[in-house]
Specification:
The structure is a homodimer. Chain A has about 350 residues and is α/β, with parallel strands linked by helices. The first copy, chain A, contains 13 helices and 9 strands. In chain A, the strands form 2 sheets. The first copy, chain A, has a 7-stranded mixed β-sheet with strand order 5-4-3-6-7-9-8, with helices on both faces. A two-stranded antiparallel ribbon of chain A has the order 1-2. In chain A, helix 5 crosses helix 7. The longest helix of chain A is centred in the N-terminal third of the chain and has 13 residues. Chain A is globular. Chain A starts with 9 loop residues before the first helix and ends in a 10-residue tail after the last helix. Chains A and B meet through helix 1, helix 6, helix 10 and strand 8 of A and helix 1, helix 6, helix 10 and strand 9 of B.
Chain lengths: ~350, ~350
């Protein structure tokens, strides 16, 4: 079809199809793209230049020319196909978990603020409880020993409140969070829960090796960074141990995913579940437009727009579950100090990361 | 916890937890296990021997001893957490797709029967339409050129009825199906749809190389077999091309998954979505108990039970989506004849496969 020659990537089509329903903010487009921020911005730039879409009052919409094109491209009117009941997560939030979430939200009102300089950014409540329900469904929580590296989401506290795990250990670089978690544990008599200060660049304490059933982390987005986080986690796992982590498209192309996943397979892990856009984050909207994130500065520089701060979650990641098929084979040996420094956090796709 | 020492695999726990809700048939346990048939049967055998579960009138249930144990193991009563609205698939079946499914079911009442000797076994209707909806959501159908290897499900016909794709090519070993699809295409004026006889062991026709956006297959379950199916598919893909296929746990351990996935990564593919138990199959219930499948004979031999034929779908697979991150790099070169013969279909985990 001749019209389609303008659209030379799948993301061009995804954006036009999405806008065929309703106008959308810059953040909506990022949320609904399956591509990284660079490619999504490039698509938007091209569609603007081709006069297929326009930007007014903080919203993108189809131009007359765009509407004509969309008529030819869409064989049927696009209607959202995501289940409304579960937001596409496939999971029911039963009373038991609803109660735990309410309790958690009440008890952690005094939580420390996320520090974007540490690449912290917490998942929103429905994501948090859905994550716990999914892990429970898979049999990875009840009577299990669980270790987390990094826990700005305070997943460890909601896990402890669920009363399901045996033991929960949090390894966290931010002393504020370590103290907060340990204080809550004491205050609420959550005997199973303990946090210690740990920097992922440091060797793993030998007493943790081979001790845990389940490892959860929401790591940085660089290849070396993720590989380091998961190396550390894997070395602490028992046989049949499982790994959960989030990986976004917004800061990681498919090529980067390919390298990251390949490293995971070399560690004797296999992906058993990969749920795209399962995790949504409550990033500070003020920070996003004010702190110099490339996702914002490139919108200004490349697209010539100044988006208002986001009004709802848009940053998302794919929730991964992997299982060990053999002894842990960490890419970075457990007893080696690994100094990544800036490379831990930052690469050329890092659009929602400070450096 | 002392009680837990009896339970030395995750599958022991999954089975007891499942039975804590209600008695369940042999087929229910296979459906709800995350493990392969061998390990699931081993778990059942052990739980029977330990007198934790019993088998009566076609149903497994907890014994008094089992109930006592479960009281200690379960920190809360187990309640199913799968969204009822979408059966855990996360997708809404909109009117448009509902209509297409009705039309499809009406028009294919005269379909050829599945031949188990060819490892044929068709997905049930909700799976079929959900698969199409998911591919549509991901942007892989509309205006796309689609190729299928093997199509006993007749997905090509429902795709053609959706009027969304550009062209659909079916490569199929069973001449009955090729003729059926081509006749339907003629009869219904589905210009986009064509089927040709093709055996996956044969080289790929050069005119198909690099010509398709989307490849769909529901292959055999051996490592070599799947690798061959996907090698053939990948060689026919354009840049950014995607692969969809189903892989079950019932005939494939995590170790086997690890080898299969590793082969896929070597072909420049990366997993973007992996939806466990997304696909359910309508296997002929009579065949399952009468044809000598190991999933049945091992129940008789190892467990000493004679399950009634299944009354609802139980065979399931995980729906995989992968995308090319570079040029196709098929594991088996497109121009080579590859003779796998019996090894195409059969290995020691093949419990629902004839040989």
């Amino acid at each position: 079809m001749k019209e389609l020659t303008i659209l030379n990537t799948k993301t061009d089509y995804i954006i036009l199809r999405f806008l065929s329903q309703n106008p959308a903010s810059y953040w909506d487009l990022l949320l609904n793209s399956f591509d990284n921020s660079i490619n999504t911005i490039n698509s938007i730039e091209k569609l603007l230049k081709e006069n297929l879409i326009k930007y007014e009052n903080n919203y993108f919409s189809l131009t007359e020319k765009g509407k004509e094109l969309v008529k030819k491209i869409l064989k049927t009117q696009y209607k959202d196909v995501i289940c409304k009941e579960c937001n596409g997560k496939g999971l029911k939030i039963t009373e038991y978990f609803k109660d735990i979430l309410s309790k958690f939200l009440e008890l952690t009102k005094d939580r420390p603020h996320a520090i974007p300089e540490f690449d912290q950014g917490v998942v929103e409540p429905i994501t948090l409880i859905s994550r716990v329900i999914f892990m429970y469904y898979k049999g990875d929580i009840e009577n299990k020993d669980i270790v987390l590296i990094g826990d700005d989401d305070l997943t460890s506290i909601i896990l402890a409140l669920s009363n399901l795990p045996n033991n929960i250990l949090v390894l966290e670089a931010d002393k504020r969070l370590v103290d907060y978690i340990n204080n809550k544990s004491k205050e609420l008599n959550l005997n199973s829960l303990k946090a210690v200060v740990y920097n992922v660049e440091d060797p793993v304490n030998e007493e943790y090796l081979g001790k845990f059933d389940t490892f959860l982390t929401d790591p940085v987005e660089t290849i070396e960074g993720i590989t380091l986080f998961i190396s550390r986690g894997v070395s602490m796992l028992k046989e049949e141990g499982v790994v959960y982590f989030g990986l976004t498209h917004l800061e990681a192309s498919y090529k980067k995913w390919h390298k990251i996943h390949s490293n995971l397979y070399s560690m004797n892990l296999v992906i058993t579940d990969l749920l795209d856009k399962f995790q949504l984050y409550d990033l500070n909207p003020e920070d996003i437009v004010n702190k110099g994130y490339r996702v914002y500065t490139e919108a200004v520089n490349k697209l010539g727009i100044k988006p208002d701060k986001p009004t709802k979650p848009w940053y998302n990641s794919a929730f991964h579950r992997l299982i060990l098929v053999d002894k842990p084979n960490p890419y970075y040996p457990y007893n080696k100090q690994i100094k990544l420094e800036r490379n831990l956090y930052y690469d050329n796709e890092a659009y929602v990361t400070l450096y």
